[in-house]
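Students often ask why we bother predicting the structure of a whole assembly rather than each chain alone. The short answer is interfaces. A chain on its own may look different once its partners are present, and contacts between molecules only exist in the joint model. In this exercise we take two input lines together and write out one structure for the complete complex. Read the inputs first and try to guess which parts will touch.
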Amino acid sequence: MLKVEKLNVHFGDFHALKDVSLEIPDGEFFTLLGPSGCGKTTTLRAITGFIKPSGGKITINGKDITDIPVEKRNIGMVFQSYALFPTMTVYQNIAFSLEVQKKNKVEIDDIVHECARKVDLTDVELVKNVSELSGGQQQRVAIARALASNPPILCLDEPLSNLDAKLRVQLREELKELQKKLGITMVYVTHDQEEALTLSDHICVFKKGVVDQIGTPNEIYNKSRTEYTNNFIGDVNKLSPEFVDAINRSGIGGVELDAQKHHYIRLEKVHIGKTGKEYFTAEATVKSIEYYGMYIKYHLAVGGSVIKEIEKNDAMEVHGVGDKVTISIRPRDIQSFVPEPEEEARPAQKSGNKVHK
Amino acid sequence: MQSKEPFSIKRFFGKKSNIFLLVEGIFFAWFIFSFLIYPNLNLFADVLFSGGLGDNINKILESERAMQAIKNSFILAISMCVTVNVVGTLAVFVTEYFDIKGAKLLRIGYMSTMIYGGMILVSGFKFLYGEVGMFTKLLQAVFPDVAHNWFEGYGAVLFIMTFACTTNHVIFLRNALHQIDYQTIEAARNMGASTSRILFRVVFPTLAPSYLSITILTFIKGLCAMAAPLIVGGTEFQTINPIVITFVKLDYTRTLGSVLSIFLGSISFALLMGLNYIERRGHYMSISKVKTRIVKQKIKSPVLNVLMHVLAYFLFLIYVSPVCMIVLFSFTNTRAINTGTLSLDAFTLDNYKMVFSNPDNYGPMLTSAFLGVVSVTLVIVLILLACRIITKYKQYRVARSLEFFLLIPWLLPAILISVGLLQTYNGSQWTVFGATLGGTIFLLILGYVVNKIPYTLRMTKAAFYSIDDSLEDAAKNLGAGGFYTFTHVLLPIIIPTILALWALEFNGTLGEYDISVLLAPTTMKTLGVTIKTLTTDNYDPNSTAVSFVYAVIMMIIAGLVVYFVYGRKGASNNVRKTKHMIKHIEKMKRLKAAKG
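Now the answer. The structure tokens for the assembled complex follow.
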């Protein structure tokens, strides 16, 4: 169990982390998620020891590691760039930490081969130079290298952001499988919400140096605690006050939506042509269409506002621009939040490469 | 891209631009043959046929002076490979890798060799450590046994050459160090590696290719050393280059001089070909797209930290004290200069008055400036023409061989090229239609132009390649002809590079010695030759004062050039940095506002 308690980090006057507390059980895939500058990487670097916190405690199975220097901490790390040593072979890269520990040659050889086997690296690949490897192989070497010293925890700092889109999806699956197979605790940093949702057992969403919500992917997605997290994860429709008023007047679903709050509904929870007594319906006009193949995204004009809607492309009728349709929404699918300032409620989705302090 | 249509003579001559191309082609063929190939072949033939190669080699083997010079050159070159690497590495690592207080100031000090080199640098060191030098006096005060001429011979030459040749480290090694992905250093720390293990297992191996290149260049610099052995080598430590000059200037040893220069040329040729091969094999490219910038490392042990600081500032003193001394003493009277003592009433502007009022004194400056303007302008026009052919017809073998031939002077030391030109064009020569170039200013300008070709070509070509291909296509698509496109679209883009190049090359010509000592007409005195005379022959009590004024003027010019070429680029970087900072501050303000 990795425990972070009331962690605070200052960079000069800048309060980068404010009372961050986390509990990560053994064998979990735990993701730190948020836009750039939110503190997720800072938290990871504090766990690995690259950053000295100004307050708080980090413990592993009850043992305080807050003041142990990086090189003595033995927490594995996979870097954003993988940081493989370009002058060494794959074998030498994996053996690095073992040589630091002055293990004997036979032992080093055993461990290197064992680690290589775990990540499916062949003997041929072991003697290669790292520049000869593909992106996928590089990731495996980076993981094998981090595993060599048998750390209880593996930290990964946006390892997939280095790659192109297709490889990213492929390596994401590979990573998840590997984590299941090895059963090791992984702490994973990303700004990509899709990555976080597909990989994690638990996600911790960061907002400007504080923890906004910790939960399973489903909790984060369907039961966002704040407007910020709700907006950061996935695509969402914000309902106009007129729309909310119409739902309230209809009395469908037996809920009264608080006019003081902001109300949202996910795209996949809006339907076309679905009826039932628990559905609120409204007339809409198709404004524009985004055709994705597997699904179609409609932009629908309802009254004065636009609602986005996702339709599975399963041989149903495809609507054209200008078509009149009836949309239906279950009021209990609506998520309501106490309003936050506009700027805070809409976090930037894209995160650039951060500058390490 | 050019389409590869079959060559047709009718089509070729059908266009005006092609006739122009043909004229260019003929010109380059003549120029390359006459001045880049023929003089060297001629020199070689000369050595072969006047007494035969074997005979001449025997003469060298029998000449004690020549053999000693060869031996000394190799001793110097090999020692420099060690000392230059040690000092250069220290200079780069204390300013770029370790967290040392005042790194910016230190860097400026270590870069001082960029604004003064050759004769000036040697004369500066000699003034400080020489017979009347302040340091010598200091030394004698502590150790009365130290001889006046203690700063002479192998040690003195090596010392000066070491500090004169770290420029490559400051430029290339620094760049290579900044190319390292900092995440690899963090990864090593994360796996428990100590500072020294990180340095020797991660950092140095990554820099190895750069070290190899720099070492080869240093070795060649050592072999071709001129100013330092000439001025502080004394009688017992003379090297090849000064000997070649002495030999070539006397009729009965001329062939020996040629043989020695060919010897030097073949070694440097072989080494540079080797270097080319190594560079083509490539450096350790960082395999990452998202690497992070290197962060300076704090030295943890307090003792080591203090030691490193002391060392860094000690080096700084060695670098800057000659410059400071030259500038300071250029404002003092002759007595102060010749005795190396300072007093308040010694300060005067007389030296400057003396230089600027006497044609004998300001003459060499004007001569060298004139030579610089003419030769640099010529070489740049020549290379612009060549570059257009090379980049435009890059898929044709003729264009590629044009580039190869123009790079010949890069493989040969200036001394060999100069000796070749001197021997070949001393009398009437058919390649220049029977004219005699020897003893005229044309041969000297030619010598400068030929020597400047490779560097100019490399820089200009790089500028051309940085231009987006589609710009030229776009101009053509909009109806512009080839020449119009060149002058209105391409040239304006590369003009800043060309101007920077012009300034750098002009600066290099000012104090030049090796070429002008051989090729200048006897009545013409260039600045480099004048400074050498002033530094070694102390008949005139004013000589050192005059050379100091020259040095100050040249350092100011060089400083300006370096500032305009490198400094202003840094300035634009600063603008970007400032913008980044402002953004950051605004972001923090917003954060605070949100929190409050």
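Check your guess against this: Residues 20 and 211 of chain A are 6 Å apart (CA to CA).
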